[in-house]
Amino acid sequence: MARTKQIKEEEQDLNLAPIMNMVIILIPLLLLSVVFLKVGVINITAPKLSVGPPSAEEPDEEKKPLNLTVAVSATGFRIGAEGGVLPARGGCPSDGPTICLAKKEVDVSGRFTDARTMMAAGDISKGEQVMEQGLQAYNWRELYNSLARIKTEFPDETVVNLSADPDIPFSAIIRTMDVIRYKLEKDSFDSDPDFWASKPKEKAVEGGKKGFDELFSDPVLAVAQ
Questions:
Q1: What is the CA radius of gyration of the chain?
Q2: List of residues 6+ apart from 203 with CB closer than 8 A
Q3: Per-residue model confidence as pLDDT tens digits over 77-111
Q4: How confident is the model at residue 8 (pLDDT cuts 50, 70, 90)?
Q5: Are 100 and 76 in contact (CB under 8 A)?
Q6: How far is Cα 112 from Cα 75, in angstroms, rounded to an integer?
Q7: DSSP character string of 9-60
């Protein structure tokens, strides 16, 4: 009877060198393709809608909140408080807004519409430029001057209710928050270059650190009526 010769196969280890080489090549390529986003956090309070029972006792006149409100529209800013809406400033229509546009010849609503169209078509850079043209038409300096005067009369108030028309972009609301959040080096400015070049006023805070003097630092997004 013939014997069958048994052939033993040698076990070979798996060669991982090609895979490791590929991973080493891919890692730098993946890192180069990563887009890093800067995320900003804005301290705001969402609107609260509630209906409560009528109070039998009227609050003291001194304890009534200011209920300061700033409404942004394509024609300017409307400023109101517990006593009503502030009258229009000089040069503005008698029916408002309180602070009209600094550049009345600019079609703000049209600029915002064109900017949205450009951004939707993928032309982000051009859209941002057109958006900025609309934002520059607002009288930000007079908005700050007006709220600084109100702060002088009501130094303990920090809350401001912000509202805007439906066609107003979120960037206009953000810039409004930036303008009214801190006190600047002066309470009133006569020229736009001086206003935009001014820095927030510093003050001492707990722990020996330095902070910024607040104007209306607690913005609340209100529902436009």
A1: 30
A2: 210, 211, 212, 213
A3: 999 888 788 888 878 888 879 999 999 899 999 99
A4: low
A5: yes
A6: 13
A7: PPP-----HHHHHHHHHHHHHHHHH-----------B-------PPPSSPPP
